């Protein structure tokens, strides 16, 4: 069953065509990567799929619901990590997780687990405004992971994270997908995509150029980076 | 190089403004200013007949002086708020962080940019409007040009004063208060027996020395301000540790408001208000316009043959209208982008901020009103003043929330939004002001009229509140 479906989706900002007739279908339990150079339209597509902005043409369905007509219903069932880390400036990491749990009405939120997982104990008593970029990104990830949703949209989630945390997050995401979760990952870090994704789409100048199964690449003895260069350059 | 930077700064300013107001709204602002200039000249004779020639010119100069201070404050202290609203904002003034240019030089260029920008954006259009007015009003064009020039110098003095205060503020807030106090005292001592500004004195007396002094004042202020800027500036330390986790406690406290907005959102906003210390800033930003109001009261009493006593009810109206400012402050505390990751809408956050406004921030206007009524020995009028203040506050804040959402400051830069705000706010304000002044002539009629207006405003408040959901439900947090 498709959890994400886009039909002829386009987005214009004034005269700039940021997305051009995008068609995509992503199945439940898939780890899907959207790859592309800077300004290719990755974040625009993610924002449309998560109900943050509206399409100019075409439609998108998330978990069987039209996103523009059911934004709140969809948002309850998805977790989002935006491109730039921006946890609430004046809350402590624990308060951020408590707020998310309260708004999402999670009965028994695993606050202690995520604080431990991201090593946020030393940040107790500090507000997010005073944290480093990497620490803020950890809070953003914890706020998304605590939501326990069936579908996650991650926009460059590994930016600013140290290699140890990157590995932990990668492992957790693999486990999450094994247990039935679906991940939509926006990235231009091809190494992470190669390691994690089942399928990936390469987007350039707002248009999907190619959708590939990562396993097939191995069979053809070509790696993602070579393919990426071939398509983009 | 300086010319290029200055030109780019001007482009940046225009792009910044058009990014948070619509391009149409931004570019039509000079037209509004030109109309104001036209009307000011058209009604010159009436105003002079009412107020007196000298008082009219003086009030225009005071207005321009405060406009300069306001524009300068917005320029030199506003970037902090912009960053809070929009997240990271890279401006050319931050260039010394990465490029071999001194902070002193870039800040001076920034100051010049401000003057050029406001000159072309407001002063020149006002002058053009004035010229058109002069055509119909037979006012001497040379006199008009000379007076407009004197006003520009006054505006520049206000702008330079704000520049100096911002430079002193980089050293410490105590230095800035001391510097501001000293500058004001020296200024008053120098101009005690003269007109309110040197440029006005030049216009009135034709004494060439005064135009030299008028030009020297902003020049000296800006030179001192520039010299005070150093390249190694560290922000005052903020509290790093020791914050208690209080969200759950506030969620319990705001449980009663669950039908208005999510208690977790209200609690987050409540904590923001407390930890950002915005309450203190709100208090001082209240003191400034009220200070001007009191000054105007004194000035009108001094200048007009008819005695006008602004009473507690009048201040209730004014303080109620300043509610817009408090609501606007609530929108500058933190960047709302995080909310876009959660199943909540912009309207939920708008309503949460309204809950805060109506429950937490009332102490500021209440304190001011009580103080004013006590100082004017009008405690008997305080209950009516409070009712008026609350009704007007509810009306204006609900309208502001409905019309501007989470972007009050930037939305009001849009001349179309501003014009609507003007139309909605000014007529009831004028009606209530007139009624408050007439209270000693016919108490019962005034009270009945005031009650009727309050009832209408209360109904309109409910109307605006009910429309918030529809207007902001599908809006993005970006």
Strand and helix map with partners:
The complex is a heterodimer of chains A (233) and B (478).
Chain A: E1 2-13, E2 16-27, E3 31-35, H1 42-49, E4 57-62, E5 65-66, H2 71-77, E6 78-81, H3 93-103, H4 111-117, H5 133-145, E7 151-155, H6 163-178, E8 182-187, H7 190-196, E9 199-204, E10 207-213, H8 214-219, H9 224-232
Parallel strand pairs in A: 3-8, 3-9, 6-7, 7-8
Antiparallel strand pairs in A: 1-2, 1-4, 4-5, 9-10
Chain B: H1 2-20, H2 23-42, H3 44-51, H4 53-86, H5 103-137, H6 141-171, H7 173-191, H8 198-205, H9 208-228, H10 247-253, H11 263-275, H12 278-303, H13 312-321, H14 323-330, H15 346-359, H16 363-375, H17 382-404, H18 408-411, H19 415-437, H20 443-472
Which features characterize this protein?
heterodimer, A: 233 residues, 9 helices, 10 strands, B: 478 residues, mainly alpha, 2 domains, 20 helices, 77% helix, 0% strand
Quick overview:
The complex is a heterodimer of chains A (233) and B (478). Chain A is an alpha/beta fold.
Quaternary class: heterodimer
* Count of β-strands of chain B: 0
- From the spread of the alpha carbons, the general shape of chain B counts as globular
Determine the N-to-C terminus distance of chain B.
Answer: 35 Å
Can you put this structure into words, describing what you see?
The complex is a heterodimer of chains A (233) and B (478). Chain A is of the alpha/beta class and 233 residues long. Chain A contains nine helices and ten strands. Helices cover 36% and strands 28% of the residues of chain A. The two termini of chain A are 35 Å apart. The mean pLDDT of chain A is 93. With 478 residues, chain B is mainly alpha-helical. Chain B has two domains: 2-228, no CATH class; 251-472, no CATH class. Chain B contains 20 helices and no strands. Chain B has helices spanning 2-20, 23-42, 44-51, 53-86, 103-137, 141-171, 173-191, 198-205, 208-228, 247-253, 263-275, 278-303, 312-321, 323-330, 346-359, 363-375, 382-404, 408-411, 415-437, 443-472. Chain B is globular. In chain B, 39% of the residues are buried. The model of chain B has no long low-confidence stretch (mean pLDDT 86). The A-B interface holds A 47, 50, 52-54, 71-72, 75-76, 79-82, 84, 86-92, 94-95, 98-100, 102-104, 124-127, 129-130, 140, 143-144 and B 84, 87-88, 238, 240-248, 251, 262-265, 267-268, 271-272, 274-276, 333-335, 337-338, 340-345, 474, 476-478.
